[in-house]
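User: Good morning. I'm curious how WT7 would be positioned relative to this chain. Could you predict the structure with it bound?
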Amino acid sequence: MKYQVKNLKSYFNIQDKAINNPEKFWKKIAKEFSWQTKWNQVLDYDMHKAEIKWFDGGELNMSENCIDRHLKLRGDKTAIIFEPNDPKEKEQHISYKQLHEEVSKMANILKGQGVEKGDRVCVYLPMIPELAYTVLACARIGAIHSVVFAGFSANALSSRINDSSCKLVVTADGSYRGDKQIDLKSIVDKALTNCNTVKSVVLVKRTGQKLDFQHGRDLWYHDLKKEVDDHCDPVIVKSEDPLFILYTSGSTGKPKGMVHTTAGYMVYSAYTFKNVFQYEEEDVYWCTADIGWITGHSYIIYGPLLNGATTVMFEGVPSYPNYNRFWEIVEKYGVNQFYTAPTAIRSLAKQDVKFVEQHDLSSLKVLGTVGEPINEEAWNWYYNHVGKEKCPIVDTWWQTETGGIMISPIPFSTPTKATYATFPLPGVQPALMDADGKELEGRLVKGSLCIKFPWPGIARTIWGNHQRYINTYFKQYPGMYFTGDGALRDPAGYYRITGRVDDVIIVSGHNLGTAPIENAINEHSKVAECAIVGYPHEVKGNALYGFITLKKDCSESEQDQLKKEINVLIADSIGPIARLSRIQFSDGLPKTRSGKIMRRILRKIAAGELNDLGDISTLLNPDCVEEIIKNRQ
Ligand code: WT7
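Assistant: Good morning! Here's the predicted structure, ligand included:
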């Protein structure tokens, strides 16, 4: 690929080119893909109106670029290795040729159900090959996929289906996760009682469990598959036609359906994959994320397949049947690049190191981390025990909204430094802003992280609400994209991401907004009001602490019951990942004179930083703070 970084000097060189002439830079990379019609303009943008177009006028098909383009040279090469949850179940090696057939069949199934270009398809599947087939099949016919992580509740699923009026849902009877079996189909049934746009449900058989089959709506995938052709011509779409919607939590309101379009996302996910992982033709690459998150979209499916790579898809969890699992898989397939999240690293680092040492990990070349700041201890453990001090760690900072990695070391080029995401990738122009909206120049500064110039992978809008897109990302610092993160720049120019500066809390790498959790709690008839904050947690990074006031006093045993009910409400409304680790009932919550809950104080109390509460004398009700401290959980 053009502009591949090979050493630090070439990084600086390439970054200069990308900044001095972005259009020329991205155009040269874009030329390596397959286009039906060439673009007439590389970039057109207005950062105030948040209108960004890349490769406008171009026409192409994403699945053709991921699959068909490789058939001649790599037809028999393995595209996807599927490793099931249960190590006793046989794995699958799916070649590019087979992938082409499977995706074509799935595309024909969708077409057969009336799905057309531009229609939305909701994908609620476990990490099985059919998930990849469905995503690529949507891309093949120009339909817009909306993958919903199969750990979300029925409520969360139905609100996402309704927000983008999906026509069809692809799901499975059930899923396996460690020793658990999850009844996906009944979650979908429950969700669909509130959705009237869904005409059909395509059901993949995974667990074989009993289910309530609704004739006229539900269809078995294996039945439909028998009747369709294994050829399907790709539908040509425009560069700026949406490829997918992916929902992400905001600090307020309902989840935001981030819209990614076709050409820019393609170029960006492919270029960043190649450089950040330094993928070579024979390598086996493994990202442990779920395809329900952006990491899975960009770095299990699109980035790797666009590069003709072999990508591992793992259905299970790191702890099942025991904590050997990840290392056993690395050894089994000779994984060369391994990409996971700090929360997984921390939970593995807590186990006996023999789990790692029992396995031959000598195939590893590059280790990656993503999703939240990685602490120094976890970084060192990863570097020493997994990488044996030989594999650079790429601490990759990015977001659902950015489409691809933005700040990361380039392995073998950028010297790594624990907890630092280091340099922006070529074409990325970060800025640190102070509270007055001024850019902080120079080194050794700390501020809010913005991006000054468009890159091809940036989300184009929030589905159905462009104004919200502008307000959330382009208003605070006019002319720039605001990330919601804080960061610092060290004397070498390296960036370190310090964490969110808004009310989003990252728990085990999952982005959770406080508002939807608070709304769920407020549904309880006994709750008067509540505030959710994050506090540091050894494994999860952050855990959730709820401060709740009740309408009426309760006995201790009633309180225990209430805590359970509150967590059930949260699990039903969002999903089990949003459950509170600690709940404290109190008579009041600290408020400003204008009645706003002072979360800053609650955050300090939850973290145990009791000597550092700041001035509380200006509060409306300073007395409640003492009571809260006394009863701290
Ligand atoms: C938020 C985005 C991008 C894939 C997974 C998460 C945090 C992400 C890092 C990192 C420190 C990180 C940020 C960001 N984050 N990567 N390497 N170091 N923080 O995607 O759910 O959209 O979350 O994750 O706070 O804003 P997401």
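The chain has a mean pLDDT of 96. Residues 556-573 form the longest helix (18 residues).
Let me know if you'd like a different ligand tried.
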